[in-house]
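Q: Got a minute? One more chain.
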Amino acid sequence: MSTSPLHSFDAALLRWLRDGSQWQALPLAIRLQLRWRSAWATLNRRLSEARVADAAPLAPPLFIVGPWRSGTTVMHELLTAATGWPTPLTWQCMNATAFQLLPAPPARSGVARPMDGLEISALSPQEDEFALLALGVDSAYRGFLSPERLAELAHTLDPAYWSAREAEWLPRFERFMAGVLASASQPGRRLILKSPNHSFRLPALLKRFPEAQVVWMVRDAATVFHSNRKMWQAMFAEHRLTPGAADGLETFLGTALQSCAQVLQQLRAELPPQRWIAVGQAELAADPRATLAHVMRQLSLQPGPDAALEAALARTRQGRIERYEQAVPASAAAGVAALDAAQGT
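A: Always. Here it is, folded:
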């Protein structure tokens, strides 16, 4: 069986996998191993949550959002370095059920992401969606494990779904946040949280944290679509557990872009300029230092150590930006048009 770090997860995700029609197609040894891992992950999650039961109230986070493949990773790296704020790290997100029970790993060289060549290491800022996935929270990334069930996850792209079910996911997310702060010995500090999936949760998150700030990444919607199709196919190949065809990806991505357009329009209508900013991926790539300075001025963010920012600028220059010439398929055309209209691109 693959040694993917996404294959250790809470019992809630195991139940979802077992409900799928392809679960029984897995060899018995793999099913037993996943159950064993899940039992330990669930126990570790409960032990970890007990450690932060009396944690200080959470300060309003800063959310980095926008569609998948819109530049959120580079912004996360740079803004974390520029401010010195705490943020979930790779080793925490990939060991979400147990990181509070473990020592931090030593600094080591990283590996290049297959979709863009950006380096990631155990101590890199990381997308917390991987933590929520392991913790059993409903997530579009369940599709990485069972691509044939992607259409079943369309509800995770609907902001109304997350607002209606806050009690099912928000407390677990908050305990993860508290654990990150406790692990960094920084209780009460503001967190930087990056996940394109939070674009769909943003109305619920802003209700919970009415003083939170938002950086929304903008990129040409057709490029976003093509880059996403490549990324999702790569993630299926790397992390899938169950067999079966990954049908419906283009339609799924089109729906995701339409939902992002809806939330972006809501942000423009409801949040004042000091609470949010839209940042073009092209501008960030062309002049990251000036773009970051503009973000920090608009959101009134204080700078951290210069050395950390210089190192992050050097790391993010290693990434590649790919170009796509293909036409957008009809199943995603409406989503691409809606996102371009909302972005003004």
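A: The mean pLDDT is 94.
Q: Perfect, thanks.
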